[in-house]
Amino acid sequence: MPAPTFQCLTCHEGQTPCSEPSATRYRTKSRASCVTPSADDRTLLRVSRWTSVGAGLLGVGLAIVLPTVVDALKTFYGILTATLFVPLLAGLLSSRPSAGQARAAVLVSLVVLLGARGALCGSPLASWVPSVAAIAAATAVFAVGGLTARRVTA
Fold first, then answer.
1. What is the pLDDT of residue 50?
2. What is the pLDDT of residue 26?
């Protein structure tokens, strides 16, 4: 009985699937294909260690700044909702949006969210207006991207 074949996670549409065994493919191809495909194990280990140190320092800093766990959860859930709601919904409901539009929508909505939170700090409107503004900005990104994108015909 032949071994099952799996498509490599790093293979893109239109390319032939990898012929390597799945364990080797996982170890060699999926680790850094998006950033530096030729990175060796030593470089990957160094980058992952520094990333861990940075994430730990960021976590400690946020723990010092945010007064309660509830505030931290409200902040992070608000950011996730405002930045990912429209790209997720657009991706589920339509096949037209591209990955570039989704990335742009996330970045624009994050900037709008943080800017509105800073501008409305201390105001009663600060609890909901930044999220609504960020969702509106992401919707605008998809609307403008849909109007300006070239349609690909199969």
1. 96
2. 47
